[in-house]
Design brief:
Strand content: 15-25%
Distance between the termini: 53 Å
Order of helices and strands: HEEEEEEEEHHHHEHHEEHEEHHHEE
Number of helices: 11
Number of strands: 15
Largest sheet: 6 strands, antiparallel
Helix content: 40-55%
Bound molecules: adenosine-5'-diphosphate
Radius of gyration: 52 Å
Structural class: alpha+beta
């Protein structure tokens, strides 16, 4: 696998490269400006020197007179005077200068000679029949030496500035990444120690602190779901242990019996426990599928009114056994989009709870109405009710207010309401319960219809 550089190094390299480009551009610009400036000022000086030479030249009575104080070498500029035909009158060209350079009036020339660059400016002033050429010669090596000096300075400073800024930048980036390293170490400690209760350091208000806070929130949820998972597994094993123990002991008993009646009795007990386990395993499977999102909803138009009537009819026998009457107060033709099987399961769970925990000789009522456009399903009973401290926990898996009672009653294990809650959520419905101890309970499922 291609090994990538650390972010610290990449950031450092990136901005060092950008700095190098910017510095190069700036230096290039400085060199260009300097060069232009030097050339421009040397041309101006040259012109001035050549013109100045004529201050010391005069013609008196047709006779050429040159002031003896004429300065033929000034500020790096050499002055040479020629006659009209180009014959040398005064001065000498510097060593290496190509003497054959033509005399061209009022024009700047650049010539090469003796391995150097020369700037030349000529001027002619005529006096009647005759005249004088003044030539100014300037060696560009004087300007070059300035540029060379700047070049040497830049060549030393450029890498030095880059190196220092890369180093400084790396240290700043490293410092900025220190909290990330602390988070990495803490995360490693958490994963290697499998201690889900540990948290990352998340003090501060910067981006890294926000990241750590987000991770901590995720760890909270993970810890919570691991805890629930653990609890679920332990509860499930616990629930299965009892029927298995009963089955084993009944089987032992049946095998040790010569009496066929006794053996038959034991077999029935085994069958009852087997059924209980089958129900429990089916419920567990369904909840696991719901958790894993593998329980697919078959959405269709469901006539809820008819469904309530069918469930009331199905549970009539169970209700009669406790002397309970199931009443239906249903608005006709209430239809919604939902999964018929799951909605049936929800109704059965709610109504069978109303029967199981209802008052003997009492009533269980299924109400179906429309309220402000919502479809509202209520299952009421006038039974034992639920104490406030249990109310918010009854939807938890395996939670039973009185385990001996519900397990003894219908073999259920406290999973019915968690399934009801899941089905409600899967239909975007909300579920609420109102209950008073000794008076009864109302479970209300509200299906919003947009
Ligand atoms: P169970 O299999 O025990 O009925 P549920 O999840 O359906 O499991 O219900 C959880 C607990 O809520 C029950 O054990 C019971 O204590 C309480 N409960 C549910 N419905 C009612 C009700 N209609 N009246 C009183 N208590 C109820």
């Amino acid at each position: 696998m291609k090994r990538r550089l650390s972010i610290k190094l990449r950031v450092t390299l990136f901005y060092t490269a950008i700095l190098a480009v910017i510095l190069s551009l700036v230096l290039g610009f400085v060199f260009l400006a300097l060069d232009l400036r030097l050339v421009y000022s040397s041309k101006a000086n040259l012109e001035e020197a050549v013109k100045g030479a004529f201050d010391d030249i005069d013609f008196r009575g047709g006779q050429l007179e040159i002031d003896s104080r004429i300065d033929l070498y000034h500020d790096g500029i050499t002055l040479v005077l020629y006659g009209p035909a180009g014959t040398l009158l005064l001065g000498s060209t510097p060593a290496g200068f190509p003497v054959e350079t033509p005399l061209i009036a009022d024009t700047h020339q650049n010539v090469e000679g003796g391995g150097r660059q020369w700037q030349v400016y000529d001027m002619y002033v005529g006096y009647g029949e005759t005249g004088v050429w003044a030539r100014g010669i300037y060696s560009l090596s004087t300007s070059d030496s300035v540029i060379n000096f700047v070049t040497v300075i830049s060549a030393v400073c450029f890498p030095l500035v880059l190196l220092l800024s890369a180093l400084g930048g790396y240290l700043i980036t490293k410092r900025a990444f220190r909290p990330v390293e602390r988070i990495t170490q803490a995360a490693n400690r958490i994963s290697s120690g499998s201690d889900l209760s540990a948290r990352l350091p998340d003090g501060g208000k910067d981006e890294i602190a926000h990241l750590a806070q987000a991770f901590n929130a995720m760890l909270d949820r993970l810890e919570d779901s691991f805890e629930r998972e653990k609890q679920f597994t332990s509860d499930a094993s616990h629930e299965l242990r009892t029927p298995i123990a009963v089955i084993l002991s009944e089987a032992d008993y049946a095998l040790s019996q010569n009496d066929a009646q006794e053996a038959l009795h034991a077999m029935r007990a085994i069958q009852a426990q087997g059924n209980k386990m089958a129900t429990l395993v089916a419920q567990l499977l369904e909840l696991t599928r719901a958790d894993n999102h593998t329980l697919h909803l078959e959405m269709e138009r469901v006539d809820l009114t008819t469904l309530c009537e069918a469930v009331a009819e199905e549970l009539e026998g169970q209700a009669r056994a406790r002397g309970i009457t199931i009443r239906c107060a249903l608005e006709p033709d209430i239809v919604l989009t939902g999964d018929q099987t799951l909605l049936t399961r929800m109704l059965i769970n709610l109504v069978s709870n109303a029967v199981a925990y209802g008052k003997e000789q009492g009533e269980a009522t299924i109400r179906l109405t429309r309220e402000q456009g919502d479809i509202v399903l209520c299952v009421e009973d006038n039974g034992i009710g639920i104490a406030p401290e249990h109310l918010e926990r009854i939807f938890d898996r395996f939670y039973r207010v009185d385990p001996s009672r519900s397990a003894g009653q219908n073999g259920s294990a406290g999973l019915g309401l968690s399934m009801v809650q899941w089905i409600a959520q899967a239909h975007n419905a909300t579920i609420n319960v109102k209950s008073e101890l000794g008076k009864g309970s109302v479970f209300e499922v509200r299906f919003p219809q947009k």
